[in-house]
């Protein structure tokens, strides 16, 4: 199928816009690749240090100049359910590397925090910045320059984007990302949401809420809703950094273990020492980035990726804008309905056809670039295959050609919507994004008086006092990256959902983030310029009438501009001490804007 002309035009403008920075990036990659493998540059003492603690057989193998050495960078910890299975991976990888005539070493760990634990807590103010910390920690792990390729073990929200940014700093090294997979299905997400809403109204207690949450999050693997963690896994497939079909295979299964070992064998085969060099700097190009955005829109993925994919692209010298995301969303149909966009979870999505079906449909419709380089070799068509075990042997076969459940997954001829999951909002309040794939059409447009809050706790208190039982646009400001690190405001969702269920017209406008699990609430998020930088949100007062129109992409306040700017802006709240927040002051001061990825690395 010929490439869709809109996708072709957007790709071309990204290529033209990025030409200077991309050429500089590729020149750096070529220079690094010509400098010979790490061991050729290291002195005997350096190399002896690198393998001093290795088993004797690995020390002997390390003396072979043709034996690749794989670096392992892992986000393992046993608090994150999605990362707990990674504990076993290094042993599997080392075993597979030896079988392939290579060595593998644990190069370093990166921090990995769980937004599910820190929601509504002070630690959430470190969450977004942890992405850039992870990127820098990845660079520290690989900076020994003793590796011919690298394997990246991580799954969740900021971890995968941070690992990608770090990997792209070592553009000449082949890279493969190795996930853990989703946990088995627990309490249905719709039932969990119902109990959260009852708790917000005070109709059930903490014991009932904890029982529901524990039945939802109950074992190893990613949370089963289609939030940021699972959107990351979709993205790694569409951008060619996973082995095909590896995103949604359960942890602690024979198939998952086989995929881990095969990832090691595959990346060992595509180093500079062989005939099939596949450096990560070539895998992540303009077409791969566009494929990732197309997948984001077609599956109704997490709003957090509107930040992360911009930052990841910039790490490869590619300049991606919110207008690019918006135009792709207008061209790409919505093919998936997975909670919070529907009632199904990612296990149901996988059973209905999963990524193999999505990739096939996107290629069939000309919505994605087939002519890309992936860790599996040339061509995105590698990714409409799915893995299986034939006895103990790992093999691939073609995935389903038709959806096995059109309530969850549909073909391009019969999508859930003709447009994708995210849209750009712009007007005299700034620029932001809205996730519309889970928002009912009757909630796409709202005009109502504003209720303005500086803290999410103040909103929750006002809700409990009954002050918001009306049509209202809730403005929560000073939540941007410069103000307090741009925490997720998912704790607002149950209360706003209650107001919607009571029949009110309600929306949220904020310079902060919502969770990747944000659902039916119409929310203009990531609003830029943020209030702390003098953006219009700093001038909004209670009672100002605001319109959010997700159909036309408008966000504006019904106050004359001169009158608005004549007001005294609300003062920027002082930074709060404790919970490590003092250590991140330099990041708050130096971070870039949300529409540029909210990064300190590319500010």
UniProtKB/TrEMBL annotation:
Gene3D superfamilies: IlvD/EDD C-terminal domain-like (3.50.30.80). PANTHER family: D-XYLONATE DEHYDRATASE, PHOSPHOGLUCONATE DEHYDRATASE. This is Phosphogluconate dehydratase. Belongs to the IlvD/Edd family. [4Fe-4S] cluster binds at residues 156, 223. Residues 408-598 form the Dihydroxy-acid/6-phosphogluconate dehydratase C-terminal domain. It catalyses: 6-phospho-D-gluconate = 2-dehydro-3-deoxy-6-phospho-D-gluconate + H2O. The lineage of its organism: Bacteria, Pseudomonadati, Pseudomonadota, Alphaproteobacteria, Caulobacterales. Its EC number is 4.2.1.12. Its cofactor is [4Fe-4S] cluster. Catalyzes the dehydration of 6-phospho-D-gluconate to 2-dehydro-3-deoxy-6-phospho-D-gluconate. InterPro entries: 6-phosphgluc_deHydtase (IPR004786), Dihydro-acid_dehy_C (IPR042096), DiOHA_6PGluconate_deHydtase_CS (IPR020558), ILV_EDD_C (IPR056740), ILV_EDD_N (IPR000581), IlvD/EDD_N (IPR037237). Binds 1 [4Fe-4S] cluster. It comes from Caulobacter endophyticus. The keyword 4Fe-4S applies.
């Amino acid at each position: 199928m010929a490439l869709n002309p809109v996708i072709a035009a957007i790709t071309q403008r990204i290529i033209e816009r990025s030409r200077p920075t991309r050429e500089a990036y590729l020149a750096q990659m070529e220079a690094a690749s010509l400098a010979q493998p790490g061991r050729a540059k290291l002195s005997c003492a350096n190399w002896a240090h690198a393998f001093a603690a290795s088993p004797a057989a690995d020390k002997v193998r390390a003396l072979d100049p043709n034996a690749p050495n794989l670096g392992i960078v892992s986000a393992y910890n046993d608090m994150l359910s999605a990362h707990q299975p990674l504990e076993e991976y290094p042993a599997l990888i080392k075993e597979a590397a030896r079988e392939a005539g290579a060595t593998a070493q644990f190069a370093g760990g990166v921090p990995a925090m769980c937004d599910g634990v820190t929601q509504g807590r002070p630690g959430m103010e470190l969450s977004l910045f942890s992405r850039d910390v992870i990127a820098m920690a990845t660079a520290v792990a690989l900076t020994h320059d003793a590796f011919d390729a690298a394997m990246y073990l991580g799954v969740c929200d900021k971890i995968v984007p941070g690992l990608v940014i770090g990997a792209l700093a070592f553009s000449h090294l082949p890279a493969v990302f190795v996930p853990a997979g989703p946990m088995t299905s627990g309490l249905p997400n719709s039932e969990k949401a119902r109990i959260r809403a009852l708790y917000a109204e005070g109709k059930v207690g903490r014991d009932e809420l904890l029982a529901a949450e524990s039945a939802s999050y109950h074992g190893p693997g990613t949370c089963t809703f289609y939030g940021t963690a699972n959107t990351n896994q979709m993205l790694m497939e569409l951008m060619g950094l996973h082995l095909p079909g590896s995103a949604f295979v359960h942890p602690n299964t024979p198939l998952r273990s086989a995929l881990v070992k095969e990832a090691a064998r595959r990346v060992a085969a595509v180093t500079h020492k062989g005939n099939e060099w596949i450096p990560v700097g070539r895998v992540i190009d303009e077409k791969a980035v566009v494929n990732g955005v197309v997948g984001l829109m077609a599956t109704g993925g997490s709003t957090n990726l509107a930040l992360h994919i911009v930052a990841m692209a910039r790490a490869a010298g590619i300049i991606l804008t919110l207008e690019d995301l918006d135009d792709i969303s207008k061209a790409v149909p919505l093919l998936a309905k997975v909670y919070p966009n529907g009632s199904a979870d990612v296990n149901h999505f996988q059973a209905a056809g999963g990524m193999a079906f999505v990739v096939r449909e996107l290629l069939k419709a000309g919505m994605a670039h087939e002519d890309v380089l992936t860790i599996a070799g040339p061509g995105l068509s590698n990714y409409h295959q799915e893995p299986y075990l034939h006895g103990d042997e790992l093999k691939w076969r073609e995935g389903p050609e038709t959806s096995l459940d059109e309530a969850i997954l549909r073909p391009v001829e019969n999508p859930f919507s003709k447009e994708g999951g995210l849209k750009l909002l712009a007007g005299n309040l700034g620029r932001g994004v809205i996730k519309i794939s889970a928002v009912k059409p009757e909630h796409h447009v709202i005009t109502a008086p504003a209720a303005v809050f500086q803290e999410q706790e103040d909103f929750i208190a006002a809700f409990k006092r009954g002050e918001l039982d009306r049509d209202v646009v809730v403005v929560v400001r000073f939540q941007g990256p410069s103000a307090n690190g741009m925490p997720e405001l998912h704790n607002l969702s149950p209360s706003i959902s209650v107001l919607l269920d009571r029949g009110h017209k309600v929306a949220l406008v904020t310079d902060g983030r919502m969770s990747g699990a944000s659902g039916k609430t119409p929310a203009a998020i990531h609003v830029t310029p943020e209030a702390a930088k003098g953006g219009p949100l700093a001038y909004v007062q209670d009672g100002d009438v605001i319109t959010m129109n997700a159909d036309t992409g408008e966000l504006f306040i019904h106050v004359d501009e001169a009158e608005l700017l004549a007001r005294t802006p609300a003062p920027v709240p002082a930074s709060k001490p404790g919970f490590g927040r003092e250590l991140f002051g330099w990041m708050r001061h130096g971070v870039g804007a949300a529409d540029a990825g909210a990064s300190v690395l590319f500010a």
